Amino acid sequence: MQGRAPAGSVAAVRTAGLPPAQVPLSAARIRVLLADDEPALRGALAEVLGQEEHLSLVGSAADADEAIALAARELPDVALVDVKMPAGGGPRAAREIQRLSPATRVIALSAFEDRPTVLEMLRAGAVGYLVKGMAADEIVGSIERVADGGTSLSAEVVGGIVHELSSQLRREEIEREQLEARRDEIRRFVDGKGVAMAFQPIVELQTRTVVGVEALARFRSFPLRPPDEWFAEAVAVELGLQLELTTIRQAIAALSQIPDDAYLSVNCSQRVACSDDLAKTLAPVADRLVIEITEHEQVDDYEQLAASLANLRGMGVRVAIDDAGAGYASLRHTLLLSPDIVKVDISLTRSIDIDRGRRALASALISFADEMDMTIVAEGIETAEELRTLLDLGVRFGQGFFLAEPGPLA
Q1: What CATH number should be reported for the domain holding residue 126?
Q2: Beta-carbon contacts of residue 99 (< 8 Å; ≥ 6 apart)
Q3: Among 68, 138, 182, 224, which residue's Cβ finds the most Cβ atoms within 10 Å?
């Protein structure tokens, strides 16, 4: 390798038209920053660079922090950056160097063929990638090419990059296809296709008189999935509100089959509760409706939710908190929203006849509801013993498989 600038290089452009005696040494050189945590490699590369008259080593760094600081101060033409060095590695160093010194061209250095690292460095702004152990003239040639505005990739990694990129593009394509397929399935449900409603009676426990029915959505799709998963999926593809409104409308369509002295209870997330569409949907039958606030989505603004529920209450709708006692969120709902009905979760009613802890928690919740003039409804009653214990605790209303399973209206 001769110590002069090749035709068309940065050094040649800088010196174009000047007699050799009038060319400042610094202007004729490509200024290079070296960053690697291996002292021996830094020394070897520094020696290679020092043998080239048109290259100037402006600084050496042992980690990403030092490399970033040196680049900000020296504004080098080219930075050779180790991909695995401490303090965040090559990707972090490359991003920060590009931010602080946009004109600096970054070449990544790696001791092995690591396709994911190649891609990560290229995304971080690197324009070259060299495998450690290359011949000195190849390293110098790469520095010249990137300083001149080109790119430089080791032949050893070009094939790997192409393979990795094609594999990644295929994975992304498959993910997009799967997402679109799920969105299409949920759009089908939103249109009312593949959706059915089951109804579970809510009874007065002493007399078994039906006082209300809860509408439960069922989705016909293969493979079969629980309703909660479909609602969560709908939220993920931004169709959550539409899907809930569809199921609520289908439930209301069956209201004529429910005894006039019984109410219809529908599940509702906080986003739907705050929507104008829900109020319009419930308005014609508001006095027969109970909405159960579910946890399909986290409540971000309780003031807004409380105001929306107050508007629905003004229309005649009653409000229930679902799954009370199942976790902090449901208890917070109960404290902040002052519902008309508190539904005790199955996690408390199950085996309540033989579990002192469950009895104590249920008793405290029942006492709180009585104090606040709220009606308690126990969910998930599955045995005669659970029913008897709940009656002893003063619970008047409940639902569960022991009393009646969900199904079509008679």
Answers
A1: 3.40.50.2300
A2: none
A3: 68
